[in-house]
Each structure stands twice: as structure tokens, then as C-alpha cells.
């Protein structure tokens, strides 16, 4: 298995909803990442997990809450989002010793209404 | 704050021609450079990486790095309509046992028939 999977592919949520995004990889990668990408902009790093521990939080608002239950799985919990949070949310992973080479999942297209 | 600069394009080349995509970066100590291809509505796909000065070839793609000039480029030979996409240049930095990627804004390539 050489891919990163993300579910759901699309998500529409209201500002009072709570939802979660899921990312999974079975490549044995020990670093996993969440990025946010707005239309016609490059991906922006949100969080980095290394060996299941949060190592980087790029000053992301607390309405986004990451979780890494095990080495293969990464979640992003969403609560009280704003319409400006609508974006493509990308998960990526990289392997030990080659952490620069990050491989992205297909993303979740999030719309906040 | 690292900066990665790319011409947003669009860069239009005829089918069969060589497409040349350029990128400059601000941090002189940067060591690792990446090219991602992103089709509209899809996630970024890693196509090339280069760590040493000079050229690196992989099929129709050649990455070129000049650290003295802080310049990295991507050449696509025999361009095909399927190469039409946005090409993102990225610079990596170590972040403990993971890494951080800083992306340029991307160059949109159009290969015309």
C-alpha cells in the first residue's frame, strides 16, 4: 500500500457543527501533516505529528483540533468553524530518514455554511 | 520567514516543446528542493526533488539547482497536454524528526495542441 487516504472527499458543515476529517497511511511513515489550501494559493502547513506526538502547531485556531491515535491514523476535529475556513484540507506523510519527501492524500474539500 | 518565488503564469507552450519553470528562494542555507504537480481540484503530487547543485533527470523531467544563485528550475521535455497543471516549487527545512515545506505560489502551465 503506497498511498495516503482521506475521508470524506467532500464535507459541508454549518458553523455550529462538529465534524472530523480522517487520514490514513500504511506505509510505515512516522511523520504526518495537515495542510490547508485555499483556491489558487499554495498549501499552508497547519500541524505536524512525529512519532504520534504533536511537534508543530503553526498557530492554528483552537477550533481545529488534531489527533493521532496511532502511527497510521491522523484526525482533524472541527468545531465552530467560520465560512473562511472553507478550503481543501490535505494530509501528507513522510518516512523516517526521508522526511523531506512528503506524499499527499487526495484531500477533503470542506465547505462551511 | 522563508520565501519561495514563482511566476504565476500561465506559461503557454506548444505540444512537443520544452517547458521551463523557475523558482527562487530567499534562505541561503536551504538544502532540499521539491517540485509538485497539482491538477485542478486535485492534491499535489511529488514529481522531482533535488539536493545537490547541478541537474537531475527523471524521464522527461529535469530539475536544476544553483545554490549560489538561489535558483531552482524544472524542465519538461516533449510537453504533452496532460502536463497542463500548476507546478509548485517547495523548499524543505528540518523540524525535529519531521520537516516543514514552504511552497511557492505555483506556475500554471498550459500545453497547447
Detailed description of the structure:
The complex is a heterodimer of chains A (113) and B (113). In chain A, the strands form two sheets. In chain A, strands 2, 4, 5, 6, 9, 10 and 11 form a seven-stranded mixed sheet that branches. Chain A is mainly β and 113 residues long. Chain A is globular and about 40 Å long. Chain A has no helices and eleven strands. Chain B is mainly β and 113 residues long. Chain B has no helices and eleven strands. Chain B has strands spanning 4-5, 11-14, 19-25, 32-38, 45-50, 54-58, 61-66, 71-76, 85-95, 98-103, 107-112. In chain B, strands 2, 4, 5, 9, 10 and 11 form a six-stranded mixed sheet that branches. Chain B has a five-stranded antiparallel sheet with strand order 1-3-8-7-6, with no helix packed on it. The model of chain B has no long low-confidence stretch (mean pLDDT 94). The A-B interface holds A 30-31, 33, 41-43, 45, 48-51, 55-56, 88, 90, 94, 96, 99-107 and B 32, 34, 36, 42-46, 49, 88, 92, 94-101, 103-106.
The radius of gyration over CA of chain B amounts to: 14 Å
Terminal CA distance of chain A reads 36 Å
Shape of chain B: globular
**Number of discrete helical segments of chain B:** 0
Q: Fraction of residues of chain A in helices?
A: under 10%
Helix and strand pattern of chain B: EEEEEEEEEEE
Number of strands of chain A: 11
Helix content of chain B: under 10%
Essential attributes:
heterodimer; A: mainly beta; 11 strands; B: 113 residues; mainly beta; six-stranded mixed β-sheet; five-stranded antiparallel β-sheet; 58% strand
Amino acid at each position: 500500500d503506497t498511498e495516503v487516504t482521506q475521508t470524506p472527499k467532500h464535507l459541508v458543515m454549518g458553523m455550529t457543527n462538529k465534524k472530523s476529517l480522517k487520514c490514513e497511511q500504511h506505509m510505515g511513515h512516522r511523520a504526518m501533516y495537515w495542510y490547508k489550501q485555499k483556491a489558487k494559493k499554495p498549501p499552508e502547513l497547519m500541524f505536524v505529528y512525529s512519532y504520534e506526538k504533536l511537534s508543530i502547531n503553526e498557530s492554528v485556531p483552537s477550533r481545529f483540533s488534531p489527533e493521532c491515535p496511532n502511527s497510521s491514523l491522523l484526525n482533524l476535529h472541527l468545531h465552530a468553524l467560520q465560512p473562511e475556513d472553507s478550503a481543501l484540507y490535505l494530509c501528507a506523510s513522510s518516512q523516517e530518514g526521508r522526511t523531506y519527501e512528503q506524499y499527499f492524500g487526495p484531500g477533503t474539500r470542506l465547505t462551511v455554511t | 520567514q522563508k520565501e519561495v518565488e514563482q511566476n504565476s503564469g500561465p506559461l503557454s507552450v506548444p505540444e512537443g516543446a520544452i517547458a521551463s519553470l523557475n523558482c527562487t528562494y530567499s534562505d541561503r542555507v536551504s538544502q532540499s528542493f521539491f517540485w509538485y504537480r497539482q491538477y485542478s481540484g486535485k492534491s499535489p503530487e511529488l514529481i522531482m526533488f533535488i539536493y545537490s547543485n547541478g541537474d537531475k533527470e527523471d524521464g522527461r523531467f529535469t530539475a536544476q539547482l544553483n545554490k549560489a544563485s538561489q535558483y531552482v528550475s524544472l524542465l519538461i521535455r516533449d510537453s504533452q497536454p496532460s502536463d497542463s497543471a500548476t507546478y509548485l516549487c517547495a523548499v524543505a527545512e528540518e523540524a525535529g524528526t519531521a520537516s516543514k515545506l514552504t511552497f511557492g505560489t505555483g506556475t500554471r502551465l498550459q500545453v497547447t495542441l
